[in-house]
Request: fold
Amino acid sequence: MATHKHIQPNLVFADESGNIYDHPELLMLCRRGGELTPPRPDELIPLPEGSEFFLLPGRSALGLDPETGQVEELEELAVAVFASPAHTLSALAAYNPRPGAPVLPLFAYGAVGFAEGRFWVCARRVDQDRRQEFGNIPRERIENGARKLLTELPGNRLVRHLTSCALTYGCPAAKNFALGRFEAPLPTSRTCNARCVGCISLQPEESGFPSTQNRIAFSPTEKEICEVMLRHQAKEKRAILSFGQGCEGEPLTEAARIGKAVAAFRKAGGRGTVNINTNASLPATLPELARAGVDSVRVSLNSARQIPYDIYHRPNGYAFADVLESIRTAKGLGLFVSLNLLYFPGLTDCEAEWDALSALVEDTRLDFIQLRNLNLDPELYLGLMKDVDFGPCMGLANFLKRLKKTSTWLDFGYFNPYLDKSAPATG
Ligand code: SF4
Reply:
């Protein structure tokens, strides 16, 4: 990955109407945890295509005066970027919240600067896979794909749900299903046994910010699920079929239904990687799912330590120990195990977190870490974690380098990998 050693971007800020400017003198600052610093030379990349700009309401822009070395606060507003998929943020936007500033919605707020005629962000492309890039795909192709699905499977409610998500919300997973490529989503569960602070499918009124997706309003039958799976694998040779989507609760609460659907899929000759994105709360459900034909599980967590885990995920009827047990059980069953690590710069990449995570990887020999940006108002998350000791932070690059050094088989990415069962086993 090309980084740009000599770049020192200038501060970017915005006026109340959302017009964005670069400051003539002040330099870009970024934030890791509670620390304000200039960006590290090795973490700056040109703004990836498909990224979005955010104006941060009630938050003053902060920049660095290169003459005095002082942090300067502007009257104008701070700007952040939501990096396009496959990119992990290594630092967040620097700003000062004003009294009464509203809670920010469920996104990740990356640091951005301007230099040499372009925008720069503190991020790293962690996956070369292009499944969530639609820049060169005309909408018409997605519409035609959706229409074809509705014609082929008119009575299937899951097809109706997914085609509407593809065309209304622009859900990348649903669009890929309509296009018959990469990974197809299989939302199945309406309930969840966790109450993650940043849940994207269900937010309590009092949280002060909306969920970004509506939770699925029906429970698809085994037949409906199996039809979607067979249809997708008939179109995509390297099909990935994933339970546990943003628009549902916890799939393991529907283990019996999922098990029957997967068994029927395999019995009908279904090929491809069957994956479950899960909070891994119910280890006892895994043996039956593995027998049915599930290949991989992706376990979501913000930390490999119980206290920060409990604070964020707020388990209801299960314990952190069950999550660890699920990872061991899944490995014991020969499943491919990924972590969906909810990465927060300045906390996740701290010594205490690294120690716990590398111990978990060593102990369970899990296979893969997906580095997803934690989508939550930074102030809110830092406030939740204020009494937790994290130790010094090392930066995303060092975090990955040290993990790879101690666990050489471990791979990193952003998306669920296709598991080519014909390929010779590694690691
Ligand atoms: S596990 Fe998923 S569905 Fe459940 S609360 Fe957390 S984010 Fe929401």
The two ends are 25 Å apart (CA to CA). The CA atoms of residues 105 and 209 lie 5 Å apart. The longest helix spans residues 139-152.
